[in-house]
Write a structure and sequence with these properties.
Elements: H1 2-16, H2 27-38, H3 41-44, H4 56-62, E1 65-72, E2 84-96, E3 102-116, E4 120-129
Antiparallel strand pairs: 1-2, 2-3, 3-4
Helix pairs in contact: 1-2
């Protein structure tokens, strides 16, 4: 069960942080798509977590997309209960443009809480930017 929960959190975080200035109007578009795909109906209607992290102007300037690599956070998550579980992943991001331009972006830790409703669905998520990872 732990692997399945971590996989859903990882896929959600990757989708939520994968903005693409070629098709998106802002960073909230990727997070909205991720919530629709991986979230419970209540979570998918929640607008709270959809603000960006400040990278959007840079992405728009270069018409870039964000490539995300995630890995499991090694701390001890709360033990799963009957139909509720939590996971956390670290999301490293790189902006990439068609002309070869690349820029490291801030790293995020994403905490996911989910419920098993015939498959794990996100019911809450928190995004924490690692300030030490901000590009200089």
């Amino acid at each position: 069960m732990r692997a399945a929960v971590t996989e859903v959190c990882s896929r959600f975080a990757s989708a939520a942080l994968s903005s693409n200035a070629e098709i998106d109007r802002g960073p909230g578009n990727a997070r909205y798509r991720a919530a629709q795909q991986f979230g419970s109906p209540e979570f998918a209607r929640n607008d709270q977590f959809r603000e960006g992290d400040g990278a959007w102007p840079l992405l728009a300037e270069h018409r870039a997309r964000v490539v995300v690599n995630t890995y499991e956070v090694g701390d001890d998550p709360p033990p799963p209960r009957r139909d509720t579980a939590s996971a956390a992943v670290t999301a490293k991001r790189v902006a990439v443009a068609a002309d070869g331009w690349r820029q490291d972006l801030s790293t995020f830790v994403v905490y996911c809480t989910m419920t098993d409703a015939g498959g794990w669905k996100i019911t809450a998520a928190s995004f924490y930017e690692d300030p030490s990872s901000r590009p200089r």
